[in-house]
């Protein structure tokens, strides 16, 4: 598979064409951003770790019947994926109050929610990825009602699969973000699943093992990402 033209460079990844029009190559970067790009930095080894971790989770989800864009990990920081027409909706599932949810609802961080909370955000850097609801999605024609129902159902299924998988590895899935896209008439889970897009806490100590260490200047960011991979890989 030949690496072709650079199509897009985002905050954490580069997307390249290949010699197959149905396949892209994703290269994970060490760059780190937070607060809609206002804070920037570099986390040594992050690209390799997020590539491995995302491939690991995509393998798991495919085995459990979740259709994803993932095809193959081809190098330390690259994977092949199916091409997607990205649906510009970020689907966030929250199990424990943290970050913006804790602030918005006046909850103490770490408060367990009685049921998972699903939120939608409009994927737009220019607008700062604002929170939206079903009516906004319909008004903007971002997804059909059936597609939105499928996104929510899949996100909650992913939540159940990951929580069950992570529990014996002493990782609490606090919350996470998913993105989806259309491929040949089918909706597939895309983007990545990593400490960049999930909050992982140690179930015994509550130690943060994710991007919050970068956001909040807690230090030990690379070590936290490596610890997640160590627990996943055994």
From TrEMBL:
Keyword Nucleotide-binding tagged: yes
Annotated Pfam families: SAICAR_synt
Its EC number(s): 6.3.2.6
Residue stretches making up the SAICAR synthetase/ADE2 N-terminal domain: 6-231
GO-annotated molecular function: ATP binding; phosphoribosylaminoimidazolesuccinocarboxamide synthase activity
Keyword annotations from UniProtKB, A to Z: ATP-binding, Ligase, Nucleotide-binding, Purine biosynthesis
Coiled coil: none
Catalysed reaction, written as an equation: 5-amino-1-(5-phospho-D-ribosyl)imidazole-4-carboxylate + L-aspartate + ATP = (2S)-2-[5-amino-1-(5-phospho-beta-D-ribosyl)imidazole-4-carboxamido]succinate + ADP + phosphate + 2 H(+)
Pathway note: Purine metabolism; IMP biosynthesis via de novo pathway; 5-amino-1-(5-phospho-D-ribosyl)imidazole-4-carboxamide from 5-amino-1-(5-phospho-D-ribosyl)imidazole-4-carboxylate: step 1/2
Superkingdom, natural source: Bacteria
A GO biological process held by the record: cobalamin biosynthetic process
Keyword set includes Kinase: no
InterPro entries linked: SAICAR_synt/ADE2_N, SAICAR_synt_PurC, SAICAR_synth, SAICAR_synthetase, SAICAR_synthetase_CS
HAMAP family referenced in this protein's UniProt entry, alphabetically: SAICAR_synth
Similarity annotation: Belongs to the SAICAR synthetase family.
NCBIfam families in the cross-refs: purC
Protein name: Phosphoribosylaminoimidazole-succinocarboxamide synthase
Organism field: Desulfofundulus thermobenzoicus
């Amino acid at each position: 598979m030949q690496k072709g033209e650079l199509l897009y460079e985002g905050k954490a990844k580069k997307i390249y064409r290949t010699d197959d029009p149905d396949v892209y190559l994703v290269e994970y970067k060490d760059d780190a951003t937070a607060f809609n790009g206002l804070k920037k930095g570099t986390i040594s080894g992050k690209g390799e770790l997020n590539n491995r971790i995302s491939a690991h989770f995509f393998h798991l989800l495919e085995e459990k019947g979740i259709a994803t864009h993932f095809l193959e990990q081809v190098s330390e920081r690259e994977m092949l994926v199916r091409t997607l027409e990205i649906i510009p909706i970020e689907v966030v599932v929250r199990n424990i109050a943290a970050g913006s949810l804790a602030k918005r609802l006046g909850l103490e961080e770490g408060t367990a929610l009685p049921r998972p909370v699903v939120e939608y955000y409009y994927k737009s850097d220019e607008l700062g990825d604002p929170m939206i609801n079903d009516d906004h999605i319909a008004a903007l024609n971002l997804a059909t009602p059936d597609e939105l129902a499928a996104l929510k159902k899949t996100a909650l299924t992913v939540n159940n699969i990951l929580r069950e998988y992570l529990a014996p590895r002493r990782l609490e899935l606090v919350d996470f973000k998913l993105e989806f896209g259309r491929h040949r008439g089918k909706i597939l889970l895309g983007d990545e699943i990593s400490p960049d897009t999930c909050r992982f806490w140690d179930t015994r100590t509550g130690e943060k093992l994710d991007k919050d260490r970068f956001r909040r200047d807690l230090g030990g960011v690379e070590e936290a990402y490596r610890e997640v991979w160590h627990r996943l890989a055994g």
